[in-house]
Design a protein that fits this description.
heterodimer, A: mainly beta, SH3 type barrels, OB fold (Dihydrolipoamide Acetyltransferase, E2P), five-stranded antiparallel sheet, 16 strands, 52% strand, elongated, B: alpha+beta, BirA Bifunctional Protein, domain 2, nine-stranded mixed sheet, globular
């Protein structure tokens, strides 16, 4: 495995910190005029999303993490695993467990493309597209004539997510939703 | 698209020009001579943590390795030994280092020497210079010991390595087993104490292990300390001053120790600057000297977040 010295650190570099794969967010060089130089580094732990900070002596090396980000198509779930397929023509399938799926579980739709982060060839996280179109499977009936302003109500989408929608939205409508904050964007006309 | 534009705004260029003009006026009023010394020299600092940038120069047909000077200190001390009297220089200095929010491999240094000034008198003068730009600035003077006692409850001159490592680990996310006592003290000072310092202050009487070229003398409590100060401002080191060690033999010892440490670490080992030591043998008058980072001063005066804001073209924009 390649190792990286502090002078090769840059944001986005994937490294093993305490045995866990992390991605560098920030790397600050600190050095007294007379004295040892250090790098103060902020990481995102790719397994749990937590942000870590570490200080290293400049010149120290860390092992690179064999992390790959792949665009994959979501297929189905079997109650224990969620299955994704490579879109490089190999049709190879990989199974992601609940830990890897995490929040992305709310935004799954078959045939949609997701970014799957692999560590040592195993999925460790799944990143949905920023916007996704999903059908409303359940919501209170829409109010006629109310097409613009006014309150909101909960709606359950085909993925299982519950989002706040305007009152005019009906069961069977397809909505565009921002997966980063779960906010309704607009109704998709078909 | 390569970005050819400067990173400094026009007002930052004007501030620099104004600051440089006022520094020259400040020293002219005090009869301190402006001097210029070479930036290229065949020898360079041996300091364990300062790496020089080499430059190949062809002289009479044969290539020779020179070093871009990390500060004008050695050449200016040769001038002092030759009888220049009080002198100052504003020049570029070069250090092999990562660029960062506070670092650029080439930077502007103001360095001056005061024969017969005590370290306290030199701090007075640094304070007067700072007041040229910040008339209201108050600059308390704190000893290294006082700061560690106040913020961490230890005497930095008397604390065992194990305790220092434990304290460093408690305060910072770092693997302490790789740190020596000086690393621990510098990390604690830079990362834990520095954010709590007054806006401007002097720290003086450093641990003897951090003497560099400063004299080591007993402090009022009898502890041998380095007669050295640093001016801190806006959470940065702005200036570093010494009561200069004038003994050639003592400096040779320190240079040799630096070289051994560098060899041990597998770092380049520069030759000792014999001309500097010869000048000291001849006689360096008792003096104090200080190096003031002009880019950092400009950062403090303009509340800049990054050194790039005060440089025309930082290293990644040249």
């Amino acid at each position: 495995m390649t190792s990286y010295s502090t002078n090769e650190f840059k944001s986005g570099l994937k490294l093993l910190v305490d045995g866990e794969p992390c991605s560098i967010l920030e790397n600050e060089f600190v050095k007294p005029g007379k004295g040892q130089a250090f790098n103060r580094v902020k990481f995102r732990n790719l397994l749990n999303g937590r942000v870590w900070e570490r200080t290293f002596k400049s010149g120290e090396s860390l092992e690179g993490a064999d992390v790959l980000e792949l665009d994959m198509e979501y297929l189905y779930e079997d109650g224990e695993f969620w299955y994704f397929m490579k879109v490089d023509g190999s049709y190879e399938q990989l199974a992601a467990d609940a830990g890897a799926i995490s929040e992305a579980k709310n935004w799954l739709k078959p045939q949609e493309a997701y970014q799957v982060v692999l560590w040592n060839e195993k999925p460790i996280s799944v990143i949905p597209p920023n916007f996704i179109e999903l059908e409303v499977t359940q919501t209170d009936p829409g109010l006629k004539g109310d097409t613009a302003q006014g309150g909101s109500k909960p709606a359950t989408l085909s993925s299982g997510a519950v989002v706040k929608v305007p009152l005019f939205v009906n069961q069977g409508d397809v909505l565009r939703v921002d997966t980063r904050n779960g906010e309704y964007q607009n109704r998709v006309t078909r | 698209m390569p970005d050819w534009r400067p990173t400094a705004k026009p007002e930052s260029l004007r501030l620099r020009a104004d600051v440089l003009a006022r520094i020259r006026q400040f020293f002219a009023e005090r009869n301190v001579l402006e001097v210029e010394t070479p930036l290229l020299a065949p020898a360079t600092v041996t300091d364990q943590h300062i790496d020089s940038i080499p430059a190949d120069v062809e002289i009479k047909g044969s290539p020779q390795t020179f070093y871009l000077q990390t500060s004008p200190e050695y050449a200016m001390k040769r001038l002092l030994a030759a009888g220049s009297g009080a002198c100052y220089q504003i020049c570029k200095s070069f250090r092999q280092s990562d660029a960062g929010a506070r670092h650029n491999p080439e930077f502007t240094m103001l360095e001056w020497y005061r024969p017969d000034f005590s370290l306290e008198e030199l701090m007075d003068e640094v304070e007067q210079l700072l007041r040229e730009f910040l008339p209201q600035a108050t600059v308390p003077r704190l000893t290294y010991r006082e700061l560690f006692q106040r913020h961490l409850g230890i005497d930095p001159h008397q604390t065992e390595l194990e305790t220092l490592r434990r304290l460093t680990h408690e305060n910072l996310p770092v693997d302490p087993t790789k740190l020596d006592a000086t690393d621990c003290l510098q990390l604690l000072l830079g990362q834990t104490i520095e954010p709590q310092l007054p806006k401007y202050c002097f720290i003086h009487d450093y641990p003897a292990a951090q003497a560099a070229l400063a004299r080591i003398e007993p402090d009022p409590e009898g502890e041998p300390v380095a007669r050295r100060f640093e001016l801190f401002g806006h959470g940065m080191e702005l200036a570093n001053g010494y009561d200069e060690e004038t003994s050639a033999a003592k400096l040779r010892d320190r240079f040799e120790r630096d070289r051994q440490k560098r060899a041990h670490l597998g770092r380049p080992v520069p030759e000792i600057d014999e001309k500097l030591l010869e000048a000291l043998e001849h006689g360096l008058p008792p003096c104090t000297g200080v190096a003031f980072g002009i880019d950092r001063l400009l950062m403090a005066l303009s509340a800049a977040e990054s050194i790039a804001e005060v440089l025309t073209f930082p290293i990644d924009r040249i």
